[in-house]
Design goal:
391 residues, alpha/beta, six-stranded mixed β-sheet, 12 helices, 17 strands, 21% strand, globular, disordered C terminus, binds manganese (II) ion
């Protein structure tokens, strides 16, 4: 009897939390959390924006361990300053859902690609500053250049929201400068949207999710701004004849005769599938299994039962199908940014904790460069011959 009563009290508190959360008066609401894995202020997170209706948005944070929420009436644009340590940051968000992004560009003057940031905000900032993409105040300074984030900003690290909002804001600044940011989805973006939470940093479970009672995957749901924004992104793009895709385009994709447009459309349609559909239906297994563009590693290694190691001829044939001459991939870690497969493939997923920094791939005037964490440009020779100084 006592137990049952305790349970009903807990339920009442839970319901109160849900009812009160959207109201500004609930800003001080604290939901009891008996055990926290870390100091409360290290669990801060936000902003998260829930589009409650066409004319009303709810912005919420976890600040110093407490849930902060404000409801905003919205006509065209939601604009607010951050509620927490980000109080100097102004967020500007269009009420209208973003259009699906274009996936082919030619005549791009310069391209910079980075991938697998995984919530490592400081390292991402260091690379972007040192590479000259942003200034010291983190504003876009790369003019008409195109920055490609080749997937996997989410999971592992504990500053995922910070990374996403920086990309979000820079995307707006880049467009005003006639530049562009392309956020190409990785398997970890898709996993979060689908509720595969195996790699989520514990901070988010202990913090924002536990305190708000909003499930982590719902922070990226279709009615949330970041979820809406991610759902507008592509999974494979082509800039100046160079394909950018998180895992790679393997033979399964070409066998199906899928165009880039179809890859993007199908991936977008499949993002909100449920786990039973992913397990039992044929097409999702193809998309979210090892042969799909988010997971493929065949440019680097074989996978039994799925694909063999691609040869340069295989890659060239795949690229020819897409009117491309090179492909840039993340997802599979290599020692440093480098050219593979006789120069048809460039890998940009590097081990941050070994190198001490991220690296990027720069394309300018037809030449590819590795850009180190300190901003040094190292040309990646078109020839497979080792340079004379190499042992
Ligand atoms: Mn990945």
């Amino acid at each position: 009897m006592l137990e049952r009563r305790a349970a009903s009290v807990t339920l009442a508190v839970y319901a109160l939390g849900l009812v009160c959360l959207p109201h500004p008066a609930a800003a001080d609401l604290r939901i009891n959390s008996p055990v926290l894995g870390a100091a409360a202020d290290s669990l801060d997170d936000g902003p998260h924006i829930y589009w409650q209706s066409d004319s009303s948005a709810i912005v919420f944070y976890l600040c110093d361990g407490a849930v902060q929420t404000r409801r905003f009436p919205v006509r065209d644009t939601l604009s607010f300053y951050g509620f927490c340590a980000d109080s100097l940051t102004r967020y500007v968000v269009a009420a209208r859902a973003p259009d699906h992004q274009p996936h082919v560009f030619d005549d791009v003057p310069k391209i910079f690609a980075v991938s697998d940031i995984h919530g490592e905000y400081e390292a991402m900032v260091d690379l972007l500053v040192n590479a000259g993409i942003v200034d010291d105040d983190l504003h876009w300074r790369w003019g008409s250049g195109h920055l490609v984030v080749v997937g996997d900003v989410l999971d592992r690290g504990d500053k995922v929201s910070e990374c996403l909002w920086l990309i979000y804001r820079l995307e707006q600044e880049a467009i005003r400068a006639d530049g562009r940011i392309h956020f190409v989805l990785g398997n970890h973006e898709v996993m979060a949207m689908q509720g595969d939470l195996r790699y989520v940093n514990q901070k988010y479970f202990d913090g924002i999710a536990r305190r708000t009672k909003i499930m982590y995957q719902d922070l990226y749901g279709p009615h949330m701004e970041l979820g809406r924004w991610l759902r507008s992104k592509n999974s494979a793009i082509r800039l100046n004849g160079i394909i950018f895709v998180h895992g790679g385009i393997g033979p399964h994709i070409v066998e199906r005769g899928l165009s880039l447009e179809e890859i993007n459309a199908e991936a977008r349609e499949h993002i909100d599938l449920r786990s039973y559909q992913i397990v039992f239906d044929d097409t999702p297994i193809f998309w979210y299994g090892s042969g799909g563009p988010f997971w493929y590693r065949g440019y680097h290694e074989p996978k039994e039962g799925w694909y063999s190691l691609a040869t340069p001829d295989d890659v060239q044939a795949i690229l020819a199908y897409y009117g491309a001459h090179a492909v840039v991939v993340g997802h599979t870690e290599i020692d440093q940014v480098d050219r593979l497969q006789d120069g048809y493939v460039f890998g940009v997923d590097v081990p941050l904790h070994e190198l001490g920094s991220f690296q990027g791939l720069l394309w300018e005037h037809g030449v590819y460069y590795r850009v180190t964490g300190s901003g040094e440009r190292q040309p990646l020779a078109a020839s497979a011959q080792p340079s004379p100084s190499s042992p």
